[in-house]
RNA sequence: GUGUUUGUAACUCAAUUGGUAGAGUGUCAGGUUGUGAUCCUGAAUGUUGUGGGUUCAAGUCCCAUCAAACACCCCA
């Protein structure tokens, strides 16, 4: 085979894949609009330092970077949040708060691919800026849940795991763990799920150099319920935040979806408070969505202090989950009406009819070559057309036209005068 | 960057201990100038991912390379 392949980690979207992608996108859009979010977009490439400023120089390894003809260092965007923060920072106080924006960016990361991970992919990003209360976090979690529910998934398929970086930090400080140890400890925590319990505990002991302390940390991390954590520190503000969050989620009718999970820390990210991830119940995919609070990012880009929270969900893992659950929609029809003809000399008449139909707003097509009627029907089938209109046949001598409904197989005669109204009837109940 | 597995027709796969590639599906043409399926007949398509090596002989063994899948690292 000598045809060129697309670059590593990219996908071609043939019509079949494209319609599946559009199915996901339109569900995302519908849900965001239902919640009162506005769509925005930004350049697909940005100045490199937009990303290094937030994530450090090392991030460049993971980016598609290039120089333009004036030697500006640029990068294809690996995520949307920096662009969003930049845009909000630039408008400053002129921007009416709260900002409720969403976007469906195409993103690029130079990574080694594996299951659920490509180099070019799409994300839904949803963000609220200007609200410091957890009501914003709750609203975002609700949107995240409803994007999945709208696609046909429910709490048998996925759940939301919520934690708080502040809470963990408070608990660790209470145990007199030095402040500079906390970030590395978060990193260690992120691995918890991958390690067997005793191995993880050993690593804790090694890291903290104190067996009793390690045991205490280990016990906190193994708390089975939120109540156990509340008991440790009932008056802490982050505990109150979480309590409020769970109460609000209950009023969204989504309490069944949300669980407290102290193991969620979201890597090295810029998150500052509540963090959450949506995971499939079987846990055999990577996170479906993730998000949280990032109150310092806007000011990092020179904007005024702006509380902010958001989440992102990628198309790759989601598509895998939907396929695993068998939730893949039928291919849409290419055209509603297929015009077939018994008379192969009849091309111009077919074009005239097609033109008349199209001018009236109908979606229709016809074979572009003279072929036997059987083949025409196969084409109509392949186009998933809803009805076939037969032309050039004997019926025309009595001013009738035969129509076949391809879904039921039923055929019927209509007079030429009532063709359009009958077609409208036939196509409207689909 | 590290490791494991894989690569044969458009697709899914076959090919005994090494003996110069085959089936099904699909496609196209016809049976069929009044109907999507089924049936029948016929046709086309491969430098076996690529490049070397061993051998009288390589799809098969060896090396390299490219690509893919999965895991580690990382995950915004």
Gross CATH architecture of the largest domain: 2-Layer Sandwich
> In CATH, what is the homologous superfamily of the largest domain?
Bira Bifunctional Protein, Domain 2
Helical run tally:
15
| CATH-assigned fold name of the largest domain | BirA Bifunctional Protein, domain 2
Low-confidence stretches: none
CATH classification class of the largest domain:
Alpha Beta
End-to-end separation in angstroms reads 43 Å
Shape: elongated
**Overall number of domains:** 2
Strand content: 15-25%
Structural class: alpha+beta
Structure described in brief:
With 430 residues, the chain is α+β, with helices and mostly antiparallel strands.
Describe the structure.
The chain is 40% helix and 19% strand. Strands 1, 5, 6, 7, 8, 9, 10, 11 and 12 form a nine-stranded mixed β-sheet that branches. Strands 14-13-15-16-17 form a five-stranded mixed β-sheet, sandwiched between helices. The model has no long low-confidence stretch (mean pLDDT 90). It has helices at 15-34, 48-55, 81-91, 134-150, 165-174, 179-190, 197-208, 211-221, 226-232, 237-251, 297-300, 315-324, 347-359, 373-382, 419-428, and strands at 38-39, 45-47, 65-67, 73-76, 99-103, 106-108, 120-129, 158-164, 258-260, 274-280, 289-293, 308-314, 337-341, 364-365, 387-391, 400-405, 411-415. It has two domains: 15-181 and 228-324, 2-Layer Sandwich (BirA Bifunctional Protein, domain 2); 337-428, Rossmann fold (3-Layer(aba) Sandwich), CATH 3.40.50.800. It is of the alpha+beta class and 430 residues long. α1 runs antiparallel to α4, α4 (134-150) runs parallel beside α10 (237-251) and α7 packs across α8. The protein binds one RNA strand of 76 nucleotides through residues 1-2, 5, 8, 51, 54-55, 59, 61-62, 78-82, 107, 109, 111-115, 117, 190, 266-270, 286-287, 290, 312, 340, 342-344, 372-374, 376-382, 388, 390, 393-394, 402, 404, 406, 409, 411.
């Amino acid at each position: 085979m000598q045809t060129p392949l697309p670059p590593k980690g990219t996908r071609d979207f043939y019509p079949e894949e494209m319609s599946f992608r559009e199915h996901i996108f339109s569900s995302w859009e519908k849900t965001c609009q239902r919640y009162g979010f506005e769509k925005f977009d930004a350049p697909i490439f940005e100045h490199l330092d937009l990303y290094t400023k937030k994530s450090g120089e090392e991030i460049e390894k993971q980016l598609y970077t290039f120089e333009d003809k004036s030697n500006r260092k640029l990068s294809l965007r690996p995520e949307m949040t920096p662009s969003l923060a930049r845009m909000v920072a630039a408008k400053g106080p002129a921007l009416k708060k709260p900002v409720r924006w969403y976007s469906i960016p195409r993103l690029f990361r130079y990574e080694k691919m594996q299951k659920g991970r490509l180099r070019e992919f799409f994300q839904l990003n949803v963000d609220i800026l200007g609200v410091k209360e957890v009501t914003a976090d709750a609203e975002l979690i609700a949107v995240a849940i409803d994007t999945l529910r709208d696609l046909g998934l429910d709490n048998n398929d996925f759940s939301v795991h919520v934690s708080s970086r502040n809470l963990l930090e408070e608990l660790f400080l209470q145990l007199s763990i030095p402040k500079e140890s906390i970030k590395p400890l978060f990193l260690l925590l992120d691995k918890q799920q991958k390690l067997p319990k005793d191995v993880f505990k050993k690593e804790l002991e090694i890291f903290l150099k104190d067996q009793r302390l390690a045991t205490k940390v280990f016990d906190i991390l193994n708390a089975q319920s939120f109540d156990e954590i509340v008991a440790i520190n009932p008056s802490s503000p982050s505990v109150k935040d979480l309590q409020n969050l769970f109460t609000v989620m209950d009023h969204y009718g989504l309490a069944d979806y949300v669980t407290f999970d102290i193991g969620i820390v979201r890597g090295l990210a810029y998150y500052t408070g509540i963090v959450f991830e949506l995971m499939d119940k079987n846990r055999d995919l990577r996170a479906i969505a993730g998000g949280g609070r990032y109150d310092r990012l806007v000011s990092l880009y020179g904007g005024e202090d702006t509380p902010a929270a958001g989440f992102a969900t990628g198309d790759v893992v989601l598509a895998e989950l939907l396929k695993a659950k068998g939730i893949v929609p039928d291919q849409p029809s290419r055209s509603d009406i297929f015009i077939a003809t018994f008379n192969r000399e009849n091309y111009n008449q077919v074009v005239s009819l097609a033109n008349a139909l199209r001018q009236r707003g109908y979606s229709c097509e016809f074979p572009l070559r003279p072929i036997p009627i059987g083949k025409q029907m196969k084409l109509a089938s392949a186009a998933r057309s809803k009805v076939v209109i037969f032309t050039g046949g004997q019926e025309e001598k009595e001013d009738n036209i035969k129509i076949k409904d391809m879904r039921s197989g039923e055929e019927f005669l209509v007079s030429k005068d009532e063709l359009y109204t009958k077609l409208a009837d036939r196509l409207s109940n689909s």
